[in-house]
């Protein structure tokens, strides 16, 4: 397999039993992503952008088409046919996902949250502790917050923590679902710096950005979505 | 797809029925069944053709409404109930070759005492409520072959402090304790023989939120530190979301859907699962 990710003819619809209807989210999507590529998706809300990312991450089940991912562990793998256990492995080791919402374990401190992500990958505690502190400082999260629960954080702090947690794993493929949507300018700059670092490290990224001009000079390609299909790409 | 890891516990085609069954309901396409109850002979089909695998260090969630067969399934796994038919294998027992359900009752006792721990929804089912807490733990240790009193005392105290029962209350009987404390004594007891598999049946149901939180945190840390595989039955999707990697959905004795927990919650397929998820959100 030449590319890291090859999406062919991806379609996804949702059957809503209580309403007795079928909602088409995306149809006939093709995307190719090489190693170290950064591809952006734009489009109005509701056009199906997040659906694509959630299909790749395995949160949504695929009905038609294929998502070929060239895994380090499993070799070329169609995510539509991967077992749940394979997806769990990939999420721990190879594929990261950042949304604009922080999903946290209750009663887990910011430090534990980031550290767990590193330990999950098999690193030792000392190493994990050091990396955790590095990334938390990079995002200028007040050290006083490190040992408190993210549930009490401001929106921006939560978001920065969320991104830190995903980026610290240096995944091979990182899915970004509008991670900077509600960040202030300075935080966006910090995210951008990390994205650049990850790109140099070989991470491929597929991202939805509301403010793509901001990411523009980073993007190798961008797709525009409308009603579940790509209208143009350049 | 070839598997890259070996399941700790494998369940194949487990069936459990209460009642003899009749010609009507034994039919492959039974017409007389109301949900899982035969209207002719009154047989209840509590578990129907349930199969699943549990992998090392994972938490497998089982959700479903009351009466869907979750607890019966757990009782079958722990040999509290005879299964009607089906197979179960544990990888560390006879190289995973012997069907546990066909083993002698002596071997079943061995498996229960050495390879599994179970925590019941009702502490009365899992504890001797009048014995001291540490005695309850010692009981399981003795069953698993321990004879050294000093060692058992140490181990018991260690476990009780792990589950946040003050060591100075170790000689008190669980009947003096609150529901949450009783539940934690049960967990300590279930863990005493360091089982690779832990069965948790509605362990937080009926506990108040803060106590529920401490029990959940305990389970989470156990899984992380000891790499135990856990089968977690709950009708509370919040609990499942917090703890389970993968989830099975049961309805009328059958597994109607399974997947990654976020799949079940965000892209539920079956009508029942959709209505279950909608009642959470």
From TrEMBL, chain A:
Keywords: ATP-binding, Nucleotide-binding. The keyword NAD does not apply. Residues 5-232 form the ABC transporter domain. It comes from the Bacteria. InterPro entries: AAA+_ATPase (IPR003593), ABC_transporter-like_ATP-bd (IPR003439), ABC_transpr_LolD-like (IPR015854), P-loop_NTPase (IPR027417). One of its GO terms (molecular function) is ATP binding. One of its GO terms (cellular component) is plasma membrane. The keyword DNA damage does not apply. SMART domains: AAA (SM00382). This is Alpha-D-ribose 1-methylphosphonate 5-triphosphate synthase subunit PhnL. The lineage of its organism: Bacteria, Bacillati, Bacillota, Bacilli, Bacillales.
TrEMBL record, chain B:
GO terms for biological process: organic phosphonate catabolic process. InterPro entries: AAA+_ATPase, ABC_transporter-like_ATP-bd, ABC_transporter-like_CS, P-loop_NTPase, PhnK. The keyword ATP-binding applies. This is Putative phosphonate transport system ATP-binding protein. Keywords: ATP-binding, Nucleotide-binding. It holds the Pfam family ABC_tran. It comes from Cytobacillus firmus (Bacillus firmus). It comes from the Bacteria. The keyword Coiled coil does not apply. CDD domains: ABC_NikE_OppD_transporters.
């Amino acid at each position: 397999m030449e590319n890291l990710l090859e999406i062919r003819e991806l379609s996804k619809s949702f059957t809503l039993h209580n309403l007795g209807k079928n909602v088409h989210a995306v149809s006939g999507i093709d995307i190719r992503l090489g190693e170290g590529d950064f591809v952006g998706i734009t489009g109005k809300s509701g056009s199906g952008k997040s659906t694509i990312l959630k299909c790749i991450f395995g949160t949504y089940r695929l009905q038609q088409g294929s998502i070929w991912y060239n895994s380090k562990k499993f070799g070329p793998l169609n995510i539509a046919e991967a077992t749940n256990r394979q997806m769990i492995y990939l999420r721990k080791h190879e594929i990261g996902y950042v949304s604009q919402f922080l999903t946290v374990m209750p009663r887990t401190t910011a430090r534990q949250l980031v550290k767990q992500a590193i330990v999950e990958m098999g690193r030792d505690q000392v190493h994990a502790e050091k990396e955790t502190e590095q990334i938390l400082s990079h995002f200028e999260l007040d050290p006083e917050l490190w040992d408190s629960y993210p549930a009490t954080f401001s929106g921006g702090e939560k978001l920065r923590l969320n991104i830190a947690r995903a980026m610290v794993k240096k995944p091979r493929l990182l899915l970004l679902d509008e991670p900077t949507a509600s960040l202030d300018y300075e935080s966006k700059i910090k995210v951008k710096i990390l994205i650049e670092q990850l790109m140099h490290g070989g991470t491929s990224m597929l991202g939805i950005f509301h403010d793509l001009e901001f990411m523009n000079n980073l993007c190798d390609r961008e797709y525009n979505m409308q009603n579940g299909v790509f209208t143009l790409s350049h | 797809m070839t598997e890259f890891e070996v399941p700790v516990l494998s369940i194949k085609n487990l069936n459990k029925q209460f009642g003899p069954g009749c010609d009507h309901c034994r039919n492959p396409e039974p017409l007389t069944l109301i949900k899982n109850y035969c209207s002719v002979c009154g047989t209840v089909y509590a578990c129907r053709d349930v199969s699943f695998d549990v992998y090392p260090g994972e938490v497998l969630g089982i959700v479903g409404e009351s009466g869907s067969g979750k607890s019966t399934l757990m009782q079958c796994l722990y040999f509290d109930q005879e299964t009607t038919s089906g197979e179960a294998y544990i990888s560390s027992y006879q190289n995973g070759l012997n069907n546990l359900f066909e083993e002698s009752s002596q071997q079943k006792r061995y498996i229960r005492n050495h390879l599994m721990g179970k925590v019941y929804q009702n502490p009365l089912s899992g504890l001797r409520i009048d014995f001291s807490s540490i005695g309850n733990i010692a009981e399981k240790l003795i069953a698993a072959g321990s004879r050294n009193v000093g060692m058992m005392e140490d181990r018991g105290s260690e476990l009780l402090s792990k589950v946040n029962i003050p060591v100075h209350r170790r000689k008190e009987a669980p009947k003096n304790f609150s529901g949450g404390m009783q539940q934690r004594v049960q967990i300590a007891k279930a863990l005493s023989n360091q089982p690779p598999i832990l069965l948790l049946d509605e362990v937080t149901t009926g506990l108040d939120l803060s106590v529920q939180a401490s029990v959940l945190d305990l389970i989470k840390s156990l899984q992380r530190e000891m790499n135990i595989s856990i089968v977690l039955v709950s009708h509370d999707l919040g609990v499942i979301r917090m703890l389970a990697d993968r989830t099975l959905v049961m309805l009328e004795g059958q597994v109607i859907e399974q997947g990654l927990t976020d799949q079940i919650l965000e892209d539920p397929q079956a009508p029942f699962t959709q209505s279950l998820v909608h009642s959470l959100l």
